Amino acid sequence: MPKRRRAALLPSNIALLQNLVRRDPGSYKEEFLVQYRHYATQKEILATNPGGFHDTEAFLDQIGFIAQVCTCYPNETKEYPEDLADLLKKHHTVLPVELREKIVQSLVLLRNRGSITSERLIQIIFPLLTTTNSKTFRKDIYATLVRLLKHANRNAKAPKLNRTVQTLLFTLLESSDGAAAAPDGLWAAKLTRELWRRSIWDDPRAVEIMKQAALHGNTKVAIAGVSFFLGVDREREKADRKKRGLVDDDNSSDASSDDDDGDKPQVAGIKHRIGVNKKTGKRARKLEAAMRALKKKGKVAALPTQLNFSAIHLLHDPQGFAERLFGQTLSRGGGNKFTLEQRIQVLNLISRLIGVHKLSVLGVYSYLLKYLTPKQQNVTQFMAATAQASHDLVPPDVLSPVIRKIADEFVSDGVAAEVAAAGLNTIREILTRNPLAIEADLLQDLTAYKGSKSKSVMMAARSLIGLYREVAPEMLSRKDRGKVASMEMSATAVAGQAKKLQYGVENIVEGIPGLELLEQWRKEQGLDKHDAEDAATKEAEDDDDAWNIDISDSEASEGGWIDVESDMEYNVSDDEAGIQDDHNTDTEDDDDDDDDDSDKEEDVEENQPEAKRAKTEDAVQTLMATKILTPADFQKLEELRTKAGLDKILHGGKAAAAMQHEDAVDATSLLGPKTGKTNKMERMAAVMEGREDRQFGSKKSKKDNQPHSTTNKEKARKKNFIMMIHKRDVQGKNKKSLRDKQKVLRAHIERQKKSKGKR
Prior knowledge:
Elements: H1 6-9, H2 14-23, H3 29-48, H4 56-69, H5 80-91, H6 97-113, H7 118-125, H8 128-131, H9 135-152, H10 159-176, H11 185-197, H12 204-214, H13 219-243, H14 257-263, H15 267-276, H16 281-301, H17 318-330, H18 340-357, H19 363-369, H20 379-388, H21 396-410, H22 417-433, H23 440-447, H24 455-471, H25 483-495, H26 515-525, H27 527-547, H28 552-556, H29 574-587, H30 590-626, H31 631-644, H32 646-652, H33 654-659, H34 680-690, H35 712-717, H36 721-724, H37 728-734, H38 738-758
């Protein structure tokens, strides 16, 4: 039987034809055109009867074949991408699942080959997200969009493509909003959140998309937009840490070095095994692979940290956004369609906006009054929102009723300790942001709970006292002010510089706090003397250079007049000064001298702190004007501030109160430390938490955790007993007499008694 030629196999063997066309497009053009005409025929049949099309497998092969080799015949296949797009757009609801997936894959392949642009591909597949009824197809389109945008923004940002997609998302949200309020805009919110989490989009336009989603008429879309602003930044930080290869811990932002070392390849162990065992090529390649992995991990961990702004900080017109969000979701007309948990989410976002941007939405505080009762469900969430919505630009008259309501409802002798602690902690969080929002009488009543028997209530009251010792000690009773605050009040009163808190006046920090400590430390270490010696040496060298000039001009001017300034003071000799002193002594009375001396002593005593302060300020100004501080100086300054207790002022006092309006308040932290008995589950959870990093059993040395050789004695312990039965030690035990065994047993008993006696 004669052999069939290869050309006869080509029309039916698509894979072989594809390989040959790529190698030599000109020689196999006729075979390609045969397949292309067959594809066109199949496409017309499919367009005529989409539901009754049965030759799916052959059509899938033809679509994939043409997509692979279309770059070899660009003129013949210029209509091919539009044919696929038209086929997908018109018949995607009735096409088989595998055919739809193949068409999308072919379009992506055409985009990779440059046959169509990324913008055109997105315009083809994006409308299918909302029109198709297949969940699988929607999932595939969503994953394709994410991969496409990730690939386009991999090396550098693609502003044109990003702007095109963002415009489509804006249009989708606007078209789905209105009286019907369809949930189609949920895909816009989902896609934007995923791209933000991956740090593909980090511009204000993406934030505006989610802002519009939060104001959407559909409940699901609105809650998706609200959730974006509340939690997407933590998700992005977690994804960034995972990308860098760092271990993410929910309880702490820093990963421990032990966890990081556990993920690295054990290079030391591999080197040890190669040195001990036989050297083979496989072991050498394994070592090289481990070294490459270690080097790659070090490069990923050493990547520079990007400065990612929070989505709340990138908002345009946050005042208008907060007002519209409050009016649409929490007002009487719009709040009925939201559940209590959803209203809490919206309220949390509004309070965060007010605190971060220092907005003025006064209706929020009257809205919160009706929820601030101990019997309210999830009351700690409302209390946290109240604290977050407070800042120093809120009028004290607006916050005073809120604090009064919390004090009346939560802080009293007839409530439980947890309730009182939550009330006091909430009041402290509010007053940290706005200390003027409480009257002195109410503050002193609240601080009286410092003697409570409950630890949580006592700690909450003491924290309130500690806050006002720093910001406004005059509002506390005299016994609660403390020694330091009382001395500062006395010093400022004597100097006439007593300042009270005023609404709308911000404390501006001038200079570098704690710089006087650095100056004092330099004097103690003698660094200023070395600097002075260097300056004196340089000045002496300059004087030597000046004396080397020609002095003929100075000798010629010796016989002339000398200019004397009339205002300059000159020192007079003792003989000449004695006449004037005797004259002054004769004209003054002794009583006046005594009075003057006593007045001078009092003036010296009063002006001594002021003079010392002025001297310190002069030294600090001299240091700032004559020396450039290095990073080492700033590091030492931080240590001195910590040692002197200034870190409490910088990070826990007025400066912290000025910046704490941007911090979110944890609702669980308002309850304070938990006291009282715990149930068995809580005790077991605490026990298991303490066992996480512990090693049970015999303690092992550091050498046991590292790869090392073992001794013959250690190897003998692990051997089978049959292998050791002929050894001298084993045979000797069997041949011992009864008397020898008694001696060994008695010696063992004596050792046990001695060890117990030492204990």
